[in-house]
Amino acid sequence: MSYIFATTENKIRWYKFISTSATKAGEYTLLDELIISEVLSFGDKAAAKNAAQLLGLKTWRYVRI
Fold first, then answer.
1. Helices (H) and strands (E) in the chain, counts
2. Mean pLDDT per 10-residue segment, the chain (65 residues)
3. Rounded CA gap, 54 and 8, in Å?
4. Which of 13, 37, 51, 54 stands the most exposed, by the fewest C-beta atoms within 10 Å?
C-alpha cells in the first residue's frame, strides 16, 4: 500500500512532479489520468505530507493505492 497526491477539485487530477536531481517547489504538471509509473508514491501519510510541503503544495488529497 502506498499514498499518492491528487488535487482537491471535483475533477481529481494527479500531480506529476518534474524529476530532476534538485526538484524545486512548484515544479509539477497535472495529469487527467492516473498513470502509476509517472507519479510519486509514499509509504505513509507522514512521508507524503512532508514531501508535499517540501514541493510547495498548498492543498492536496491523499489517495491510497
1. 1, 4
2. 93 85 73 92 92 88 93
3. 18
4. 37
